[in-house]
Amino acid sequence: MKSFLESFSQSRRPLVNFALIAINALAFIYTISLGGLDRDIFFWKYGLIPLEITSGIEFQTLGNRFGPDIASPIPTWGTVFTSMFIHSGPIHFLGNMLFLYGFGGGVEQRLGHVKYLIFYMATGVAATWTQVASTLDTQAVLIGASGAISGVVGAYLLESPYRNAIALLVVFSGLPLLLSVRSFSPVSTGAGVAYLPHLGGLVAGVLLMAGYKLLIGEPIRPPRSPGWRPWRGRDWE
User: Fold this and answer.
1) Distance CA 135, CA 218 (A)
2) Is 233 left (phi over 0), alpha (psi -120 to 50) or beta?
């Protein structure tokens, strides 16, 4: 009888992608169950604040020393990861999960479960640090999975540039939606969009997938199938 780990490693189902969606969903359900101020405090505690990272000083209270306690119960560096599972609202959450569901499964099947999880977290970290590097002194709270998901989209496009012209159309028509939601919301100052994490995640996804393919001896861009035509995709039999 196969062990659980053997069965897990050999499964072709995108189990990690489903787990990521489930974790995001549970976190979102919890945040919407909170009241207005309590939800903002949750964002402050578990979202990423660039000034905390760059200065090494953790915020303790909101507004002044008599304000609500916003000290994070986890190390400041840990918010790099927790911030990737927090969303500001329904559109933000649903938009991100739609892209993750649509493109994450294919990337996971290509990389395998463990490597896909490492890839996802790495592109999320790269996206976050892109924003931190561009706004060193900001007190805005950065939240959202869009940076990591942009990395997934980048890997998908590099791996399957000829697979389906419709998929490319979906990506480029949907990116404005992905960029318009408040994926890295400065909740302290109201609605806002951080665009650099999307670019950072996308570039990181392309580079990581390219590096992986070179490492295993594959060409960066897969060869076109014999029946492929640029104006109508692949000939399916």
Assistant:
1) 38
2) left
